[in-house]
Amino acid sequence: MSETTELPWPVPDTRFRHWAGRFEDMxxxxxxxxxxxxxxxxxxxxxxxxxxxxRMSYYRYEFMMIGxxxxxxxxxxxxxxxxxxxxxxxxxxxKAHADGLITEEQYDLLDSCGRPIRNEYAHxxxxxxxxxxxxxxxxxRTSITILAQLHGAPGPSAP
Length: 159
Description:
single chain, mainly alpha, 57% helix, 0% strand, globular
């Protein structure tokens, strides 16, 4: 009979000490990441997971990067549904920008920051990279806004 050891309970990641003193403070950090009603269930599920990964990053800082990457993957899936499976995320972002589906600011954030994060995550190169909480929250907020626009759901209200 093999002996099993219990995993330790999570402890706060010391890298988070500048952003949140207690786990309860994480609720304030993600409070405005409200998933609008009317999204298809897969999009709602992915965005909820992205938000919760950011909240749980209090215990593992890298979860923030994974949460942001997860939200970008949801955008990629929605744009592939709209434009077809041919083409890359970069191609679809350019088309969405040209079609007025995303703003210049959204395009810049997704293309310059979101796409590289998604690529590193999808190809297994993302190991210990981190984002600041405001950037990760901003990416997930942008993903929520864009998915609400693409699916005709009411968008989140501005903070």
